[in-house]
Amino acid sequence: MKVTWTLWTLGLLALSGCPKDPQSVNNNGRGQTQDVVVNKEHPEKSLRKALDLLALDSRDAAAEAAQILQLLVDDHPDKPALVHDLAAAHTAAGDLEAAATALSQLTRSQPDDPDAWISLGKVEMMLGDYASAKRHAEKAIGLDEEKMGAHVLLAEAQRLQGECSSAIETAKKALEIDTRSLELYDQMGLCYQELGDLELASFIYKKARFMVGGDEHASIIAHQGWTSYLQGGVERLKARAYLEEAIGIDPDDASIRMLMAELLLADRAYEKALPHLERATELTPRDANAQLRLGVALRGVERYEDAEAAYKKALELDPATVDAYMNLGILHADYLKRDNGANYAEAADFFDMYVKQGGSDRDTALAYIEDTEKERARADRRRKAEQERKARQEKAAEQQRLLEEARREEAEAAARGETTPEGAADDQAEGAGSDDPTAEPAAAPDSEPAPASSPDGDAGQEGGE
Fold first, then answer.
1. Is 199 domain-assigned?
2. Which of 204, 228, 251 is the last residue of a domain?
């Protein structure tokens, strides 16, 4: 959604007349402590401040701008241009629901304003609600057939709903109204791509670029590059140059960044793909596919924990992103090696979820499940063998400790002039190291043994004279 600011409203606000008391808001209820104040005597100054904040290209600054604009809208509900600005500020702040709410209110108060319906449709496209976007585009066309933005919105919504033939017809009819609409050529080219007619798609983009004036249109150039990539052969060699040119024209177009990333991922250039995907996720934080592809790049540069987080984020944004389950399974099966083998159990669960959710590559997932079960069994055997090895080491260490202790006691007794039975130390160590720790002690003899000799050599005496 392109942000277009209605600076002409500055003059309207200055002439409108309003109370002189400043109005404030505490982040519109979002819990931040910074108050935002609107100059009600000179509202044009507050509007300028909001525009300056938006120029900072910061989400926090955009959120603050949205607060200011909300107060201005509250004071001037009859200025629809302010609502468009408010929606754009919410969009820049990443709050698409708030943008849609503002524009929905505008369509209720200004139902005959085609621009309101078009703006609402654009936000709905960003939210993935293509059916609503299509319906509102048709509403705008009914109000003003010459609104090219409505025709572009309708064609795009139709294409994204899989109605490419209808989208092409929409574009052709609209081009009869304006033969130089680059956005309509762009939608036609994308439709021919999806229909597999790459030669016609290439022709459309070349015509748009060199005959209709699209040589500085980033999307036209990027999609010409992607068409070249899909064509393969010599044409594929041109694809990266086209995409680099497009990014140079519009570095903040997330869709172009995604195309470049796809090209680089296909070449296993993960490190080069990563910054494009990071920027794409910043620009479109609710795009599950961008998170999914980011996870692939992170896995490629061996940032496995971050890759896992990206895959899970994709599922959080859109639980229908079933490929995330496959990628999580691969990550746990092949990369996240853990000493206890728990990764194999987790991998099997992810592959199983992929199959249950109707993943298209079911055979691969089932093969992975079979291999993962084998690996888990091997890991269990290795773990058991390791436990047994440690137990033997601990047993040997305990035997050695007891032997050394018994020998030390013998040495101390010898130093005091005492004697101990020969071999007692070895017997003590051997007894401590019995293979069967649960064995019963030997039974005592029926008759009591003779008392040991006293130190002075007299047998059987309990005391001296």
1. yes
2. 251
CATH number of the domain that residue 227 is part of? 1.25.40.10
* Domain around 399: 376-415
358-367 as b/e, with b when 16 or more CB fall inside 10 Å?
A: ebeeeebbee
Q: Indicate the pLDDT class of residue 169, thresholds 50, 70 and 90.
A: very high
CA distance 377 to 202: 53
Q: What is the spatial distance between Cα 168 and Cα 202, in angstroms, rounded to a whole number?
A: 15
Name, in order, each residue with C-beta under 8 angstroms of 19's C-beta and a sequence gap of 6 or more: 40
Q: What is the structure's pLDDT at 418?
A: 67
Task: Compute the distance between CA of residue 32 and CA of residue 29 in angstroms, rounded to an integer.
Answer: 8
Residue 190 lies in a domain: yes
Q: Of 251, 270, 303, which residue constitutes the final position of a domain?
A: 251
Q: What is the mean pLDDT of residues 225-235?
A: 94
Confidence of residue 39 (pLDDT cuts 50, 70, 90): low
Q: 385-423: per-residue pLDDT in tens?
A: 888 888 899 999 999 999 998 898 888 888 887 655 555
Instruction: Give domain status of residue 370, yes or no.
Output: no
Tokens 């995604």 found at: 258
What are the structure tokens assigned to 183, written together?
């956005």
Average pLDDT over residues 208-229: 92
Instruction: Answer yes or no: are the C-beta atoms of 220 and 245 closer than 8 Å.
Output: no
Q: How confident is the model at residue 20 (pLDDT cuts 50, 70, 90)?
A: very low
In total, how many domains does the chain have? 2
pLDDT at 460 over 60: no
- Domain presence at residue 200: yes
Measured at the CA of 244, the angle between CA 242 and CA 248, to 5 degrees, comes to 115
Q: Is 308 exposed, middle or buried (0-12, 13-18, 19+ CB in 10 A)?
A: buried
- Tokens standing for residue 178: 């304006």
